[in-house]
Amino acid sequence: MTKQIHTISFLSRLLDIIGPRRCAICGSRLAVSEEGLCGVCNRHLPRTEFWRSPTDNRMARLLWGRIPIERCAALYYHEGHSQAGRLVYDIKYHHHPELARMMGRMMAEEYASFFDGIDLLLPVPLTKKRQRQRGYNQSVEIAKGIAAVTRLPVEEKAVQRVSFLGSQTQKGKWERNENVEGAFQLVDGSRVEGRHILMVDDVMTTGATIAACAQELLRARDVAISVLTLCFAKS
Question: Is the dihedral of CA 81, 90, 147, 217 positive or negative?
Fold first, then answer.
């Protein structure tokens, strides 16, 4: 075992010499023990700490009265033109699914108690066309990272996105609600019935997308819903 650990360490160091890995936020060279983010950028991510009060926080309050939520949290605050904001942009538009998986693992490790009682992870789906254009669904990749730590199953077949009417980014609250009305469809309720579902997404702003998807899931029998996103955008 010791020999294998030394071999892995040697290979990691050799690969770092050949092709140095860079921090996804600041671009500085990563140490062998660092993954995706350097220690400085990781420490300075504007964490929400929502996990400390998962039933009553800014994110949860946006969903009150729209869908029943067991718990709700995000890892950090998102601001579009900040260094941390570029992380999500790179994940979505610069083809870095490995960063999404890495951030999923980070969330699972930091939020260990958040997953108590959860039965499965359900990433918010993209339309097939949108996923072909991007090459992957970033929410699925985040969920895979979470699953690697928690061993929870990832459910991708219960609900599908049937329409995409453009990005939510530049839309107001009411436009966002209208933009996702009827956008999701429950296709196999048996896959989620009787389960506590953790919906996983990259960013939540007004909660319109989460609420629209959850409303379809609630058509299945006896489901409970919680929400975890990589970041929360202050609207």
Answer: positive
